Amino acid sequence: MNSDQPQNRDDLSDAGGFQQVNVGDTERWLSAVGGGALALYGLKRGGLGGAVLLAIGGALVYRGYTGHCSAYSALGMNTAEPAEPFEYFERGIHVEESITVDRPAAELYAFWKRLENLPTFMDHLKSVTKVDDKRSHWVANAPAGMSAEWDAEVINDEPNALLAWRSLGGATVDNAGSVRFVPAASGRGTEVRVTMDYIPPAGRVGAVVATLFGEDPALTIREDLRRFKRAMEAGQGSAIEGQPQAARAEASV
Fold this sequence. Notes:
By secondary structure, this protein is α+β, with helices and mostly antiparallel strands. It has 10 helices and 7 strands. The chain has 2 domains: 9-75, no CATH class; 85-251, 2-Layer Sandwich (Alpha-D-Glucose-1,6-Bisphosphate, Chain A, domain 4), CATH 3.30.530. The chain has helices at residues 9-14, 25-45, 47-66, 70-75, 85-91, 105-113, 204-211, 217-233, 237-240, 245-251; strands spanning 93-101, 125-130, 135-141, 147-158, 162-167, 174-183, 190-199. Strands 1-7-6-5-4-3-2 form a 7-stranded antiparallel beta sheet, sandwiched between helices. Strand 2 and strand 3 form a beta hairpin. Mean pLDDT is 75; it is low at 1-18 and 242-253.
């Protein structure tokens, strides 16, 4: 074989052939739809301004169609694959919160393990749907009345002690989380320790933008845990199990 010929997908990209897919499915769809709308507006507007909008829209449509983003390539980013641990460290937002709940660890773990229960006390979540024993589909509220969706997998499960999960490739926002259930130092109840990491689309700047919409990650999780504590100590955990999501949401208020 001629040594000058490209040997793999990445080489083909450099040679002007196939381009490496480095944009997640949801992001591709948004790029294509948004780019199409922007291009149509540019056509209707006309003039220099319209030409600029048409060019930007066309670039977004191309990005959505090919799944390739040159800027991502330059930055070494790939939203089509799950984020690596170092990416959370370099570009992510890290939040840790804890609360003591006057209930046994086994009871709290059992409730949390049913990830479908999380929207009953986590306001930013619309739904969590179980796919199989490890995978689930999450839908969350996003700024400006939009939604963010992703698939996640459980990566660590220690009965009555720990649950950890992370988003899979194609997530609107890469994220990972864990919850630990530790006997309280007082000997009564359980300390629930939640850790959340996420990589906003625009890096750390994205977290600042998010606060303009009242999305302070630490405050959000702190309030979620308070609702969780109230529900579990009031004995509402068992009542919520098996109820439709709307009814469970009302029970957690």
